[in-house]
Predict the structure.
Amino acid sequence: MLRTWAAMVGVLIGSGLTLHLIASAGAADLTVSTPPSSASAFPMKVSENHRYLTDQNGRPYLIAGDSPQTILGRMTTEDAEFYFTNRQSYGVNALWVHVMCRENETCHADGATPDGVVPFFDHDLARPNAAYFDRLDTMLNLAAEHGITFFLTPAETSGWLDALRTAGAEKAFAYGEYLGQRYEHFPNIVWMHGNDFQTWRVPEDDELVLAVARGIASKDHTHLHTTELNYTDSISSDDPRWDAMIQLNGVYTYYPSYAGVLREYDQNNPKPIFLEETNYEFEHGKAGSPLNLRRQEYWATLSGAAGQFYGSLITWTLPSDWKLMLDTPGIAQFASMRRFFAEHDWQDLVPDREHRTVVAGYGIESPPGTGLITKDTYLTAARTADGRLAIAYLPNYREISVDLSQLASPVRARWYDPTNGQYLSLSEMLFPNMGTKKFVPPGKNADGDEDWLLELKAQ
């Protein structure tokens, strides 16, 4: 992520968005901690159709994540409890966390905790400090109590790639072994390698990160793996060297999110897809506005994503007063998005790629890696194969035509306002599931924008 404190000042002061922020007030010896015991269901494996994740009970697991990557370097245990409680209240079930806080202006150069506990002695990956990893154990246990999985980056490549280069592949593998043995039995982990990995095409750099992953996998036979490659547009599958290692494909894009997700969805031998990073709230001008966050989110899920991560300039940098700035429009509307899909059989939705359901008014699709999210108005839609449900997201006001014969029986139609989570019924009567019907959204939504969802349910 290309972000600086100067950018934060520009956003929070220069743009006037400040007014909208607050919606409410040792040695290398291995020490194995007791994993958390929790009634929460964490993601464990890939579904039979390879489209989504399931928990240990076999139920579909919709990733609803936040991105406080730097918490090990910025939070005390008490801070983490506050943060996890807040995010749980919004339905967040996953957090993207770096094992070592990235070496930049947000953290100590050595990746130390706020009270000075370093992850390695002498910055040497071969000499992990058990006291530091005890702190990570505590964070994982706390997260489990709140039903939260860590998407855990072992050595993020924006700040720690030089340390990997210094260590070399053998030490990188040994560090991975340390993590794999220590965390194999913690249920709430997905390993997420990379982070702004701009040099993954350089074989020597890629091999170092792969060495860590292979070291983990040599000891940990339980957890899923994924990667984040390069901005401004990439997918985990772009790097074939990782194909045998990962079970989950991450999409990283600053372009309209549906394009990257659909590019991967259309591949043979699919793996579950999730939107791991895109425009963050309070960043990149209008691209970080609530409207554009909503577009990214609904576009992705209706294009086949098995979940996604929300991000904010506040939560990844964690400034000193971050506790006062958590309750933002972006996270509240992300919660509405998660709740909407949780109330539906999202895992059965199939993208309407050939426009058999929404047959007119869907607009023009941007190819992957192109287009401006602030101007793109492409409609994404999806339908279950049995015709029980169809959903369309309209990013702006327009008339659309729907072939109701794609539904299994007479249809009840409702509009959903993504800004406040409220439904508006079109009519008490049912529409026959035959022929084509035109639909027009009911004007402005509660935020004064034009985006709506159309829900069509066979009765």
